[in-house]
Amino acid sequence: MPTRKNCRLSYIVLILLCLPQILSAQSARPSSPPVAAQSTRPTGPQWEYLVISFGKTYFSDPNAEPETKTKGLSKLISYSRIGVVSATEALTVEWQMDTLGKFGWELVGIVGAIGGDQQMVFRRRYDPTQSRAEAALIREEGERLLATQRQLASDLAQADFVDLDEVERIAAIAQTRQTEETRLRSAIDSLRNPAINNVKIVSTASAPNGSAVRAEVTVDGSVQLLREGNKYRSQEAQTLSNQIAAAIYSAAGLISEYGAASSSNLGYSLGEVKISVSISVSNQGKQKTVATAVTGGKWPERKRGF
């Protein structure tokens, strides 16, 4: 009869004989990727956020200022039949929020206050293409500001004496110009339908609290206007230019205090914000400007009495 010791030895020998087969089977078995190597890409919606403050909010009474209703600035209806007789409206903040909304930003909360001004949080679905395009525009704006700062620093270095008040005034004017140029460009960019070929915007504001900005917009109207290759109607071209000029006027939230229609030459000549829209057509390598419309007004917060 085999002893207990002999049995143990037999088991050890059997294990040693089977070990190569066991190791071979384990190496052939597919291995799971390490946890760190597995994909962690989110499958749900992705968001990007914008946290801003619009500064001090100014309110207007659209019922006391009916021109804000006739110009399409006010969204407030006086529901007098149910008791809401009068209320005030933050027209400028509405315009700024409408502009952000056209680029996909949605207000999701107010997280606090900065010096009494509301701090607002916006978000939108993350779109890499849109974000890259806007990042390029932001970099372009930054380069313009840096160029202005470098020029100012160069002028200061060459000056015998420096008036700090004048330095601050020049910097404030540069910021005012940059702000209203960006504001007008945002209004134009928010219009998705026209095939805009070129936009040139220049502010010549002469004071930190001033306004004097001009936009020259060129639109390709070939698709809408040309028939049979090279034929068009001047009346249709003029109507198209008037429509686009009016759309920019509305998107910018401009107002007129001169009793002139927004698309009139008088509104353009007297306005602090001037917009010129040219319609061109192209055929077989040739191009022609077939209509031009002008519009003008002022930013709503610069209404007399503000």
Verbal overview:
Helices cover 42% and strands 21% of the residues. It is built from eight helices and seven strands. It has helices spanning 4-28, 67-70, 91-102, 128-158, 164-189, 222-225, 234-252, 265-270; strands spanning 47-52, 106-114, 117-125, 196-203, 213-220, 273-283, 286-297. The protein has two domains: 45-126, no CATH class; 163-306, no CATH class. The protein is globular. The chain has a four-stranded mixed β-sheet with strand order 4-5-6-7. Strands 1-3-2 form a three-stranded antiparallel β-sheet, with helices on one face. The mean pLDDT is 79. Strand 2 (106-114) and strand 3 (117-125) form a beta hairpin. The chain has 306 residues and is α+β, with helices and mostly antiparallel strands.
Radius of gyration: 33 Å
Order of helices and strands: HEHHEEHHEEHHHEE
What characterizes the major β-sheet? 4 strands, mixed
Task: Give start-end ranges of low-pLDDT stretches.
Answer: none
What oligomeric state best describes the polypeptide chains here?
Answer: single chain
| Strand order, sheet with most strands | 4-5-6-7
Strand % is 15-25%
Kindly state the percentage of residues in helix: 40-55%
Total DSSP E strands = 7
Structural class, from secondary structure content? alpha+beta
Note the gap between the termini: 114 Å
What's the overall average pLDDT, rounded?
79
Helices, by number, come to 8
Number of domains: 2
Shape category: globular
